[in-house]
């Protein structure tokens, strides 16, 4: 009749990295656009944002997590972004992770960048402070220390 409330620490781990779950839990507030949601217009969020649907417009937020089947058509500006869907537009993030299911069509500006093997990116990369208008940025690619061989880190 009455259910005992479970301790969140006792629950099985859900998909996603532990760091991602800690960040969402520590901030206390986040917004989710489900797979059935399509937003036409710009989105500005002071909280973490999780997009599983479609956004046709620019996104500016502290932290963005993009689901595998989602689509963003516009510029993305975030302190932290973890992309798994399709993005058509410029991306500017301090910490950027592009997962193997991601499809990026646009220029990318970053401080730290991780790209999983299998991700598709059609655009130019430049660390913050570099000029993308000057042409393709030249970057060295090296395996992440202690990571799987399919993860690479582009230094800034």
TrEMBL record:
InterPro entries: BacA/B (IPR007607). This is Polymer-forming cytoskeletal protein. Residues 1-20 are annotated as: Disordered. Signal peptide: none annotated. It holds the Pfam family Bactofilin. It comes from the Bacteria. Belongs to the bactofilin family.
């Amino acid at each position: 009749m009455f259910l005992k409330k479970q301790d969140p620490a006792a629950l099985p781990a859900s998909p996603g990295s532990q760091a991602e779950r800690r960040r969402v839990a520590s901030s206390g507030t986040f917004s989710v656009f489900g797979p059935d949601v399509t937003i036409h217009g710009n989105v500005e969020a002071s909280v973490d944002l999780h997009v599983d649907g479609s956004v046709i417009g620019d996104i500016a937020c502290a932290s963005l997590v993009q689901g595998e089947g989602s689509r963003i058509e516009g510029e993305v500006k975030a302190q932290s972004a973890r992309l798994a869907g399709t993005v058509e537009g410029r991306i500017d993030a301090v910490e950027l992770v592009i997962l193997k299911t991601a499809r990026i069509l646009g220029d990318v500006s970053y401080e730290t960048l991780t790209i999983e093997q299998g991700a598709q990116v059609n655009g130019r990369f430049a660390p913050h402070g570099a000029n993308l208008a000057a042409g393709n940025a030249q970057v060295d690619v090296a395996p992440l220390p202690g990571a799987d061989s399919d993860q690479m880190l582009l230094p800034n």
